[in-house]
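Thread: quick sanity check before group meeting

JM: Hey all, I'm pulling together slides for Thursday and realized we never actually wrote out the predicted structure for the chain we discussed last week. Dropping the sequence here so it's in one place. If anyone has concerns about the input, flag it before I start.
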Amino acid sequence: MRTMTKFRAAVSVGIAAIVFVCPAQAQAQGYPSRPVRVVVPFAPGGPNDIIVRLVAQKLAESMGQPFLVENRAGAGGNIGTDYVAKSAPDGYTLLSVGPGSLIINPLMGKVAYDTQRDFAPVTLMARAPNALVAHPSLPARSVKELIALARAQPGAINYGSGGNGSTPHLSAALFAAMAGVTLTHVPYKGTAPATADLVGGQVQIAFLGIPAVLPHAKSGKLRVLAVTGLRRSPELPDVPTVDESGVPGYEVNPWYGLLAPAGTPREIVARLAADTTQIVRTADMRETLAAQGAEAAGGTPEEYSAVIRADAATWARVIEHAGLRGDQQR
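JM (edit): ok, ran it. Output follows.
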């Protein structure tokens, strides 16, 4: 009798498990059955926005549903990032983001989300070093001349960024610390308005993604002084790195990746990762990204998770090295 009771209990548990699992599996198998939103937590026109729109168009073709890019700017990327963290974990709301709001902001101050707890990393789309750019009116045509000018006029040179705690902000803060100069930070609600004001001469320099810089550099509206990777950019082969321009050891090489809310079915995350990786690694997309100053990435969710953990440790050291405090984020 006890054996029969145990058997019935085991059958009940098995049926409950099947009932619980099957909807998730069915949801994953039919995914996507409606349009997918991809949230960019910054204003349109920045490198993150440019890259994800290229990928979203191809994902729509691959998966047979629209992938709609939605910009939710504010608070250095925190608003859009938090929105996705609190969205339904069904694969229909994704986050396209770089290290700024995902890693740097939580290190610099209190945010409403937890990077490790609230997100399911999907995959990296691309990596793209920043460029140190100046308005042509600034009397500095090289990094060395910029450093000399900043030392002669402490705090007189201002730089724009996509927001407090953004990668461009930390790029400039690290540069100032390593070069031994004082610069004045002017934060904006996204890279695009920062770029617009730099082109207009309201700010003098900025560390911006190469995709956003290239059109203005080619037209002569901005002067590119250096790139932030350890290697020169194929799109700017004559532009030196910051490292070789008098600030040895300087390197910032941001990435742009896709994430879903934590709890999103693993099958959906895996399919998004596989399709995105296949898309960015095609010859056509590699060429398109290279024209934007970016390098195709891709990979598994596990590989992306490892990148996030490693970069969190790196940016923690950068913030400490640059002498930034948590209360500076607001």
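AS: nice. The first strand starts at residue 36 and ends at 40. The CA atoms of residues 122 and 272 lie 7 Å apart.
JM: adding both to the slides.
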